[in-house]
Design brief:
This protein is mainly alpha-helical and 113 residues long. The chain has eight helices and no strands.
């Protein structure tokens, strides 16, 4: 009886912890691709995991910055342009001033959006 309860509690703990670990792994990969300025890998990774930038943008932070500011700080212009093109104009408009501090190129793209 004790063995059954022990095994059941271990399985329950494993099932509860697994999704957050997978989400952390996904966000880590996205942050790595943004930092490396690898738009093609980022697009392929998002497609493979059936994710969209606009859906994960609000819940994702890389080095305590949102994805767009992180791209600007990492000087990832190609990925930054990609993110700007995929986000709603309202979200991009809010970040224009912060973008200008780190990347004039991305702030100009955001203003044009």
């Amino acid at each position: 009886m004790k063995n059954t309860l022990l095994i059941a509690s271990i399985l329950a703990t494993t099932l509860i912890i697994a999704p957050s670990v997978q989400a952390d792994n996904l966000s880590l990969r996205i942050c790595e691709y943004v930092q490396a300025n690898d738009k093609n890998r980022l697009r392929a990774f998002l497609k493979q995991n059936k994710l969209k930038i606009r859906n994960v943008y609000d819940g994702l932070a890389c080095n305590k910055d949102n994805l767009l500011i992180f791209a600007a700080k990492a000087n990832s212009l190609e990925v930054g342009e990609f993110i700007i093109s995929k986000l709603p104009a309202k979200k991009v408009k809010v970040e224009i001033d912060n973008l200008a501090k780190h990347s004039l190129h991305l702030s100009e793209k955001a203003k044009a959006r």
